Amino acid sequence: MNIIGFEKSVGRERYRIAQIKKAVFCDLIDDWQEATTLPNELRKKLQENFSLQINAKIFRSQDGKTTKAKIKLADGSAIETVLMQSSKKRNTVCVSSQVGCALGCLFCATGRMGFRRNLSPDEIVEQVIFFARELKKEGERITNIVFMGMGEPFLNYENVIESIRILNDADGFNLGARHFSISTVGILEGIEKLKKEKLDINLAISLHAPDNGLRSKLIPINKKYPIEKVIKAVDSYIKEKKRKVMFEYILIKDVNDSDEQAASVARLMKKHLYHVNLIAYNQTGNYFPSPINRRKKFRNILMRAGVSATERFRFGLDLDGACGQLAGRTHCT
Ligand code: SAH
Ligand code: SF4
Predict the structure, then answer these.
(1) Span 37-66, pLDDT tens digits
(2) 40 Cα–ligand 1 center, Å
(3) Domains and CATH numbers, the chain
(4) Residue 81: is its pLDDT beyond 80?
(5) Which of 119, 152, 157, 221 to mutate to test the pocket of ligand 2 (most atoms within 8 A of CB)?
(6) How far apart are the C-alpha atoms of 289 and 126, rounded to whole Å?
(7) CA nearest 308: which of 316, 299, 317?
(8) Looking at the annotation, which residues are catalytic?
(9) Residue 251 pairs with which residues in a beta bridge?
(10) Is the beta carbon of 181 within 6 A of some atom in ligand 2?
């Protein structure tokens, strides 16, 4: 799919832009001939210059709640996008922002792939439109978009924000800003920029360790963006936006899940508008997930210390569609 810049082919009749946006983002057409509000000549012109095709393969989890799409891009690169459907009519799409990731976090399958390139706004939007078209067949729609797929969104800041603007546009897809979340490892420049944006989207920070020693081991970029600097940037963000910030914490067996570490996390996180989301580790390499009783104990320590904390439900384990498992495995080709 490549539709960025279609406005230029429209000419002087500006109302056509709204008609095209409605056809592509609301009616979710996959062929310009279906845009029956447009004159034939314009449809032909659009067809020649802007593709609506999305080249994807779909994989469903056994419980039917998670669907993974492997999308092939024009240059042959493949990216993965995941749809998570919860019973409360919540349809969340987890999108990728890069092909691979340069940051090489030790626990993450994407990190092990290395970095190929940034995705364009079109390529980010396409992931959402793919699942919007699928859901439309069931009479449903996307309710949330999270940038928690492959890549570090703040290392592709402009394209990520542009894709959000397109999907937020009231004439088009019209998904409210509060339904978008960006997860970052703590790129300070990104947090600073987001603070100044008019868009009120949600910010999530991947914490995963309470001290710089361990965090630098798990997330090598922590040496450049250590915990205290990330927290300072988040505090300034909260002061400006007055919005809750979520801290993600994967529980890895015998690495970051002890009672002492829980107490240290509690000391860091006991702040106004801070929220901790505990995530069961999806095994991808040498680490193992914390057992359930450990996860419960960890959460209890946080709650007793007065920290707002929840545990995230795991989706799509049987198809490698869960967080950090997106790495273009061979069984998807
Ligand atoms: N690069 C960004 C966003 C993509 S990763 C970031 O790191 O925040 C999205 C989330 O999945 C992050 O919180 C990341 O730490 C987490 N994650 C990575 N590998 C995981 C794994 N194997 N199991 C569970 N969560 C994982
Ligand atoms: Fe990149 Fe995020 Fe994976 Fe780290 S956890 S390697 S930042 S995608």
Answers:
(1) 999 999 999 999 999 999 999 999 888 889
(2) 46
(3) 1-53 (1.10.150), 56-319 (3.20.20.70)
(4) yes
(5) 152
(6) 33
(7) 299
(8) 80, 323
(9) 280
(10) no
Distance CA 229, CA 215 (A): 13
Distance CA 230, CA 164 (A): 23
Q: What is the mean pLDDT of the chain?
A: 93
How close are the terminal C-alpha atoms of the chain, in Å?
20
Strand order in the sheet with 90-94: 56-60, 66-72, 78-86, 90-94, 144-147, 180-184, 202-206, 245-251, 274-280, 309-312
Q: Evaluate whether 279 touches 248 at the Cβ level (below 8 Å).
A: yes
The proportion of the chain whose per-residue pLDDT surpasses 90, expressed as a percent, equals 84
d(CA 282, CA 48): 44
Q: Which pLDDT does position 314 carry in this prediction?
A: 62
Provide the pLDDT for residue 330. 28
| Residue owning the nearest CA to atom 19 of ligand 1 | 324
